[in-house]
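Box 3.1 — From sequence to structure: CDP-alcohol phosphatidyltransferase family protein
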Amino acid sequence: MEKVQWVPWWWVAAGAGGLVAIGAAVPLSPTAVAVGLAYLMVSTVLLTVGLRRRGALRFGPANAVTATRSMLVGLVTALTVAALEGAAVEGAASTVLFVTLVACALALDGVDGYVARRTASESALGARFDMEVDAFLLLVLCVYDVRFVGWWVLSIGLLRYAFVVAGAGLPWMRRTLPPRYWRKVVTAVCGIALTIVAAQVLPPEANLAVAAAALLLMLESFGRDVTWLVRLNLSGRALVSLERASTTSPPPESR
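Predicted structure (token representation):
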């Protein structure tokens, strides 16, 4: 068990090496490096705690894929901070680097679930790990895109965390949601949309339209889940059979 808990830290070391490599091409301030490392360390500590609580005996190939995505998110986080500080070299090179790292992270999002199913290593911890990496990447993309479409774009990345805060005060908001593949689709589409905005390949008006469409999609997805939870709370009974739903959808997950 102790060996398993140390495995995720290899990706922290890889992320630190990645920050050094990026710093050789794009100037990264001490703050940018510190924030990138902070994300890697905090996320790894939380993952380690989860492994310990569940008594995991092996890390698993699917978690390794998600950990690689998380490492890429750490690099993207550092680049975002540098861009906001004005420390990054503006131009095609820095934009291509940012977009490439994000594209790799988004592409791997479709790999970890496949690997988990193929290796029979699906777990609640793995699904939660995957979901939290997705949520933080969206938030970082929103922060990066603030310069192009305005502060309102942050609402896309903050919806997930607003959902968690609401659950802290309303116990019925913490009920397990029925499986719904549409959540993954919306997350992927929003990630792609925000990456297109970050790439700055469209006119300003088109960037606004793309970001607005992403926000509407996210509001629809969260709105549907909140509506289901409200109806469940008011009725006092299960409106959807989780057992029946799981036979046609990916493993159950919560927001």
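Summary of the box: The chain has a mean pLDDT of 87.
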